[in-house]
Amino acid sequence: MPSMGMQMAGCALALLGWIGVLIACGSPMWRVSAFIGSNIVTSQIMWEGLWMSCVVQSTGQMQCKVYDSMLALSQDLQAARALVVVSIIVGLAGVLVAFASGNHPRFKTRISPLITTTTTLQL
Known about the structure:
The chain is of the alpha+beta class. It has helices spanning 4-26, 75-100, and strands at 31-35, 44-48, 52-57, 62-66, 109-110, 119-120.
């Protein structure tokens, strides 16, 4: 049985990983492409994310647009969107189960009506 410190470190790393997936899901930089014209004035950097696409002009102006339809995405971004949403849901369930089923004897104190003393139940 792992020590409580190792178990808490594992839960903290799982929570940190789940937060990282949330950040990656919202990031518009899944695919980055650049167009550099014959002069510096016509250069553009295009970012494509799971939920929106952004264009950065050479002047520094950035315009973002949310996708109108799921069909507007390429197949790889559609698959990535589905897999990231599934990983967020499954990751949340895993983190909740890890925190709920942890071996925390302080939180497992139960009072039985048949016994006059407080006992700690170990599962």
